[in-house]
Amino acid sequence: MRENHTIENQPMENTAPATAAAAATAGTVATQVVLPGVVEPDGLQVRHVAVPAPGQGEVLLAMEATGVSFAEQQMRRGKYYDQPPFPFVPGYDLVGRVAATGEGVDPALAGRRFAALTKTGGWASHVVVAAADLVEVPDSVSSADAETLVVNGITAWQMLHRTAEVDAGDTIVVLGANGGVGSALVQLARFAGVRVIGTASRRHHDRLRALGVTPVDYRDPDLYGRLRGLAPQGVAAVFDHVGGEGVVDSFRLLAPGGTLVSYGTASTRDAAGSSKAPVLKLFARLALWNALPNSRHAHFFNIWAGRRRLDAFRARLGADLGQVFALLAEGRLEPQVAARIPLSRAADAMRLAESGTVAGKVVLVPDEVREEAREEAREEAREGTREGARDGQSGR
Ligand SMILES: NC(=O)c1ccc[n+]([C@@H]2O[C@H](COP(=O)([O-])OP(=O)(O)OC[C@H]3O[C@@H](n4cnc5c(N)ncnc54)[C@H](OP(=O)(O)O)[C@@H]3O)[C@@H](O)[C@H]2O)c1
Q1: Same structural domain for residues 234 and 352?
Q2: Distance (Å, rounded) from C-alpha 164 to C-alpha 371?
Q3: How far apart are CA 375 and CA 350, in angstroms?
Q4: Which of 303-317, 345-359, 367-381 is predicted least confidently?
Q5: Which of 71, 90, 214, 270 has the most C-beta neighbours closer than 10 Å?
Q6: What pLDDT is recorded for position 372?
Q7: What domain count does the chain have?
């Protein structure tokens, strides 16, 4: 990963702060990770820029946790459906503390901790977001734990309760049940009294069983035969992020009245060609199935749908993430942090997330945390040496 030490933009210490917000952030340098084009993880760049000042209706968040989502794995391949042109700062979501408030924002927000869904821009030490997009994180929940359930928790909650509208006693199939979205989905479903059949690699089966899920290996050549065997009457919903030809089999698993919730095309992440073609083909298929008189439903879930009515969108998102955070605070949802890695080592984080060897979300934390941790480790080592010397002197 290339470290770019130039400080872009004029550092704010050289300018007279024009607003209270600018004054609060003056003199601070922000770290950002940049995706410059279609690159391997090593091609990610680290740059240092002047900390941005929040404008009207905005706050500046000092990032405490952000993370690697599947979206960034697609974006670095140029495969995310509507990614911005390169170069850009990726980062689908973050948890941070309000470091400064812009005009028109309640100054009492300063110092409080919030989550925000950003799609891009989260892989930075300081991020400006609209105050209306903030969702408060309960005090008892750590930033890393909360981070695992921002995009994942909203997606899982909304697909389960708003799109599929499952009821207690229903049976559902969740593909990729150990993934970020998948593990949130299965836990929320179990909490709602739903029976869950989940596909995952074998190494994740024990954990899935512990969550009350019936696991099936997605590499089984007769995967759909096995799934049908477990629910011969059909299921109330199938959650499919894989796409491709398998989506036909997912639809066939449904009982009358059941709903296919398609929400990704993970199977084409590494395929050559257009990023839009597999999605458009999927949309066409779902539209056709919905039009047929077969009493089954097929939807594509898009977390950004409905943004044209921004107030309603924000209210929904805030309410749903609030419910997820409340369950997290009550200990009813188990967050899965695969690793905490300093922001400037985002390349390592990306490689780890893509390795398929870890369970849960790879979380990026501020670089200072690493420095603090190192200092603590040094202090512990010094303390240990001192104790060792004392023990030696006292003959213990
Ligand atoms: N539409 C939306 O609004 C929206 C929002 C959020 C996320 N998403 C989508 O949700 C998906 C999951 O995201 P994430 O961040 O949760 O990813 P993640 O943590 O990397 O999890 C991906 C999961 O998929 C499994 N998997 C990979 N290939 C598979 C296959 N062929 N069949 C079945 N499972 C397979 C993986 O299993 P192993 O670890 O065993 O390989 C893993 O459990 C992505 O496609 C993402 O784009 C969509």
Answers
A1: no
A2: 45
A3: 26
A4: 367-381
A5: 90
A6: 56
A7: 2
